[in-house]
C-alpha cells in the first residue's frame, strides 16, 4: 500500500526544549503553543500481513491473536462505561492464555474511536469520540508507564515499584472487514532507538503523560492487516518498566484502496506483570 506517514521532524529546538503536544485548546492563552512539533511527511510503503503467526511480541514489538470477544460496536460507542469492564475481563483472559509468562494482567483503559468523515482534511479538536492517531508513536515511555499506573491505580505504588511489567495494547476494529485508516505497526528490529525515538510530553486536559515518537529512517518497515475483522486482535507493547524490550510503534495510515465506511475501533491498555 502506497501511503504517507507524518514523522516527527528532527528540529534543533529539541536541543533546548523537550517535545510536547496537547489536545487542549490554547488559543485563548497569549503566547501559548499547542505543540513544538514539525511534520516530516514521508511517502512510503506499508506491507500487508501475509502470515499473522510469524509475528512475535518480543522480537517485533507486536503480534496477532485470533479471538472472539463479546463487545459490539453500538455498545462500545454509546455505553462504553457500562460495558468496558466485561470487555477488560475478556481481553485479560485472552492474554493470559496466549502469554503464560504473565502472572497478573490488569486492564485500566479503554479507548473507542470513530473516524469523522472529514478527518484529516479538517483537523479540529474532537471531544466526544477520539480520532485516528497519524503520528507514529508508542503510547508511553518507560517513565510514562509508571505515570500511567500512578493515575490508574492511585495509592498502590507498592504493587508495581521495582516490578517487571509491560504496558500492552489490544486493538481491533469494531466492525469488519475494515480497511479504512488501518493501524500500521513498525517492526521493532528496523528501529534504532538511540536515533529514531524521541521522548515527548503529552499534555492532556487533566494530566501530563510521557510517550515516545518516531523520527524517520529509511530502515523502518511498516505493516498492516488487510480486511481486518473484529476477531483479529493486534497486540503491541508500548513500553516495559525497565525499558529493555521491543516496543510496538504504530499509527493510523490512509489507505487509498479503501472504499468502506469510516473506521471504528476499540483498544484496551493493560499492565502485565511477569
TrEMBL record:
One example GO MF annotation: oxidoreductase activity
Q: Which domain of life is it from?
A: Eukaryota
Instruction: Quote the InterPro entries the UniProt record gives.
Output: AsaB-like
The similarity comment for this entry is: Belongs to the asaB hydroxylase/desaturase family.
Put simply, this protein is called CmcJ-like methyltransferase
Species name: Penicilliopsis zonata CBS 506.65
Amino acid at each position: 500500500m502506497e501511503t504517507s506517514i507524518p514523522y516527527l521532524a528532527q528540529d534543533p529546538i529539541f536541543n533546548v526544549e523537550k517535545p510536547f503536544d496537547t489536545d487542549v485548546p490554547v488559543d485563548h492563552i497569549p503566547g501559548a503553543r499547542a505543540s513544538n512539533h514539525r511534520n516530516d511527511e514521508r511517502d512510503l510503503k506499508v506491507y500487508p500481513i501475509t502470515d499473522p503467526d510469524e509475528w512475535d511480541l518480543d522480537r517485533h514489538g507486536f503480534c496477532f491473536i485470533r479471538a472472539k470477544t463479546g463487545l459490539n460496536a453500538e455498545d462500545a460507542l454509546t455505553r462504553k462505561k457500562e460495558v468496558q469492564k466485561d470487555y477488560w475481563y475478556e481481553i485479560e483472559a485472552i492474554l493470559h492464555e496466549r502469554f503464560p509468562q504473565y502472572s497478573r494482567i490488569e486492564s485500566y483503559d479503554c479507548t473507542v474511536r470513530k473516524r469523522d468523515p472529514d478527518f484529516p482534511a479538517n483537523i479540529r479538536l474532537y471531544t466526544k469520540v477520539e480520532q485516528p492517531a497519524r503520528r507514529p508513536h508508542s503510547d508511553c515511555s518507560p517513565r510514562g508507564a509508571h505515570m500511567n499506573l500512578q493515575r490508574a491505580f492511585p495509592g498502590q505504588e507498592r504493587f508495581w515499584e521495582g516490578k517487571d511489567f509491560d504496558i500492552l495494547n489490544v486493538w481491533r476494529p469494531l466492525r469488519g472487514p475494515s480497511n479504512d485508516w488501518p493501524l500500521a505497526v513498525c517492526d521493532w528490529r528496523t528501529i534504532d532507538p538511540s536515533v529514531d525515538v524521541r521522548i515527548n510530553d503529552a499534555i492532556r486536559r487533566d494530566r501530563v503523560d510521557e510517550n515516545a515518537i518516531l523520527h524517520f529512517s529509511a530502515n523502518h518497515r511498516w505493516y498492516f492487516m488487510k480486511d481486518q475483522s473484529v476477531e483479529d486482535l493486534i497486540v503491541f507493547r508500548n513500553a516495559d518498566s525497565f525499558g529493555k524490550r521491543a516496543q510496538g510503534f504504530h499509527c493510523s495510515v490512509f489507505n487509498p484502496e479503501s472504499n468502506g465506511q469510516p473506521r471504528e475501533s476499540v483498544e484496551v491498555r493493560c499492565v502485565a506483570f511477569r
